[in-house]
Amino acid sequence: MKALPLEQSHLLELQQTDLAIAKAAHEYRGNPLHEEIRQLQGRAEDLRAATVAFEADLQACGRKTRGIEDEIEKVRSRRELQQDRLEQGKVPMRDMSALQHEIAQMDVRISDLENELLEAMGEGEEIEAKILTSHASAEAITADLEAAQAALAQFGTEIQARVDELRARRDQLIELIPEPVVKEYQRLQSRLGVSVVIEVKDGRPLSSPVDFSLAELAEIAATPKDHIYLSDDYEYMVVRTES
């Protein structure tokens, strides 16, 4: 494939430019901020779920507390009524002992209910404390998440600026290389990836992904300087350079 030595040099630079673009994309994808953001988002979601559960528990505790308070009010009202009857002498003598026993039982019941109420209120306070802790943790995570997202966005902006510059240079290089060479280069890239051009300097392959046979190295050496050698065995383009 015909190409002047300078055009071959541009082809090597084109590949280096493509490698730099791929490296920049890999650098962005590999930034640890991505994993940090995923972890923070996961923690935020877990906190939201936990807070919803705590709030449901608090509502249930509130209903339990109100139920106990209502029951205490009913028992107290009943006790006051019976105590008034007893004090006002409205109870027959034969029923007085039973009424006194009932009042004593209601006193015990009120005491038990008050203990239950204190326990329920304590549970409610514990749940409220958990909710406050969850909110505080959520605020801290949100701040960390926003900071990480801002840092990643800034990093992405820097990467994009670098890629834009590389792509501009890439466009310039393509204009300096014969169209058939560019098409073959792009065809091979679509099959093999970014690295499809091998530089053979002073007869020695540089960082070659393949092992050329001695016969093929001889063919490469015999290729005219204004031609690019195409490896039929490995589907690579070979550019020769000299020190």
Automatic annotation (TrEMBL):
Residues 14-191 form the CT398-like coiled coil hairpin domain. The keyword Nucleotide-binding does not apply. Keywords: Coiled coil. It holds the Pfam family CT398_CC. SUPFAM superfamilies: Tropomyosin. It comes from the Bacteria. Residues 96-130 form a coiled coil. This is CT398-like coiled coil hairpin domain-containing protein. It comes from Scrofimicrobium canadense.
